[in-house]
Amino acid sequence: MNLKLKPSFKIVLTYILFGFFWIIFSDKIIDLIADNKHLYTILQTYKGLFFILFTSILLFRITERHLEKEKIMIVKEKLKLDQINNNINDLFDLSIKMLSPIEYNDEYFIKKYSSLHLLSQV
User: Fold this and answer.
1) Is 0.85 surpassed by the pTM of this model?
2) Cα distance between residue 44 and residue 39, in whole Å
């Protein structure tokens, strides 16, 4: 079975996983580095600011990539629709020509038909 996840779900899942691992591992690192409460508080603040900055960039990149894929898909679909529309127009033009060849065929056919028509009247 082919499981296709929605892009919004992928974005949220990425955020959750990154956030989860960030909190657990960065807290352990800060616990190893900070030897007093003041340093611990400062590092926690910078850790939080870095998390906001990094996840903002991450979410921006993920959504930009998704939107670019959507734009490409829309352009491809528009090209397909334009081709279908052109094919329909060609079929319509052909059916008109087949129903009324004198009015819609090339000039040679019209001249030839006109001369034969004139001879039959003589």
Assistant:
1) no
2) 8
